[in-house]
Amino acid sequence: MTDQTSIDDLLSIMARLRDPAGGCPWDLAQTFRTILPYTLEEAYEVAEAIESGSLADLRDELGDLLLQVVFHARMAEEQGAFDFTGVVRAICDKLIRRHPHVFGDADLRDAAAVRAHWEQAKAVERTSAADATPGALVGVAAALPALVRAQKLQRRAATVGFDWDAIAGVFDKVEEELEECRETLVAGVGQGERVHEIGDLLFSCVNLARHLGVDAEQALRAANHRFEHRFAQVEAGLRAAGLQPGPAVRDQMETLWEAAKAHDAPPSPPDEFNQQVERDELSGQGPRL
Fold first, then answer.
1. What is the pTM of this model?
2. What DSSP state is assigned to residue 212?
3. pLDDT tens profile 169-227
4. Looking at domain 7-97, which CATH architecture does it have?
5. Burial class (CB in 10 A: 0-12, 13-18, 19+), 21
6. Where are the alpha helices (DSSP H) in 166-244?
7. Whole-angstrom distance, CA of residue 48 vs CA of residue 221
8. How far is it between the farthest Cα atoms of the chain?
9. SS3 of 49, please?
């Protein structure tokens, strides 16, 4: 391989790995379903690299994610369905079709007009599919993480006018759902009803995040990171005092937790990626494809 590598090199490597005569036994044993968990994992590792701010990590993780695309395309090519060129052609056609103001003569002068055209184009594509059932929520993948899917369902519903007129109503809904969760503490309420009410509360919180211009998945990931960081400081403080975490040292743990919170740096300004997420949410754009 030369120093001037290209996508053709990666395609050739994958073809060699999947070659029944001398390829890799592990790669040859894979199917779309067995590779799927790795595809999802690599997408999350791209997100983690973005959150870490390391462009070197982002480069490596994007390569890993690209490998997943090439792997799936190679398996499809072996079945005579499509190849990597077909994947590229399909996304190029989609981008050109959905940007007539850039690649054609359509007059879409602001983000709102672009968004309206985009949703209209997606709706036409959904209803023109051979097995399509008309509906604003058709095509929102069930395999998406629950928070992401909730946001997407809510955005889709909002495009046809099913949304709160003001954020005050969203706050009221969250409080209503929280009170209904409290009511499940009474004796005799089954676990199924508690699951139902917690689901409604979480869905309402996602709606609140959307109206505040916050990506719910990113917000919860950030909260997880903060919790991990602070709890690690609690454990370090206990070790320094010769103690182990447990109910017997609950007071010390609470003190160390408050100290960890106090010493945490204030939230940094959103990076360019998160600023764009916020702008998209506030303008109603959100993820496009």
1. 0.64
2. T
3. 999 999 999 999 999 988 778 999 999 999 999 999 999 999 999 999 889 988 998 99
4. Orthogonal Bundle (1.10)
5. exposed
6. 167-183, 191-211, 216-240
7. 9
8. 72
9. helix
